[in-house]
């Protein structure tokens, strides 16, 4: 069985908040002028990630199905005079990179993950297999506009970051990946938004992964 202990958790439930409102709300969390080119998701991920002080001994895992939706929409809208700034901020790992570059802080390893129905289990499995004693698992989405109308964007804006440790000291929850019982059916798992809601509401979960194991979160 693999296990990690959740020792710290930070959340941003922005839901339908406008990007400009997010920027105004979080402006004082960043150096002067730094938020001008940051994306909404970058601001929110940074707000949850910074209190955990990621460092060179940590593995950092980032999960997002759609990532920088607003920047990608803006980049596509900018054609034929394509915007290099919007292109730079539209790449998938951008939300975390905006924070790490600003901090000028290296980490031991950084794994940005994307996907569909199995993204949560992929991200948690990567955390459980990480080579460091502390793993920071973060993620989030930002609500799209015209991409949402085509079903290729999130319908809500949120971000989270949690510190996971091999030590149970100070733990508020425990993540485990264990063999499942023979009669347990394959479970569809959790979407990233559902995972965020379980963290926000301190709700446990347990489901069968695509690899045939039982992935569980139990709160202390």
Overview of the molecule:
Strand 7 (205-208) and strand 8 (213-219) form a beta hairpin. The longest helix has 10 residues, at 40-49. Helix 1 (19-26) runs parallel beside helix 2 (40-49), helix 2 (40-49) crosses helix 5 and helix 3 runs antiparallel to helix 4. This protein is 31% helix and 27% strand. The chain has an 8-stranded mixed sheet with strand order 3-2-4-5-1-6-8-7, with helices on both faces. The protein is α+β, with helices and mostly antiparallel strands and 220 residues long.
Summarize this entry quickly.
This protein is an alpha+beta fold and 220 residues long. It has eight helices and eight strands.
Helix-strand layout with pairing:
Layout: E1 2-15, H1 19-26, H2 40-49, E2 59-63, H3 69-77, H4 84-90, H5 94-103, E3 109-113, H6 119-128, E4 134-141, H7 146-149, E5 157-165, E6 173-179, H8 192-201, E7 205-208, E8 213-219
Parallel strand pairs: 2-3, 2-4
Antiparallel strand pairs: 1-5, 1-6, 4-5, 6-8, 7-8
Helix pairs in contact: 1-2, 2-5, 3-4
Topology order in helix (H) and strand (E) letters = EHHEHHHEHEHEEHEE
Q: What is the count of DSSP helices, taking H or I runs of 4+ residues? A: 8
Helical/strand content category: alpha+beta
Largest sheet: 8 strands, mixed
What percent strand?
Answer: 25-35%
Q: Which strand order do you get reading across the main beta sheet?
A: 3-2-4-5-1-6-8-7
Residue-averaged pLDDT: 93
Task: List low-confidence stretches.
Answer: none
Number of strands: 8
What spatial form do the alpha-carbon principal axes imply?
A: globular
End-to-end distance: 19 Å
Helix content: 25-40%
Roughly how many Å is the radius of gyration? Answer: 17 Å
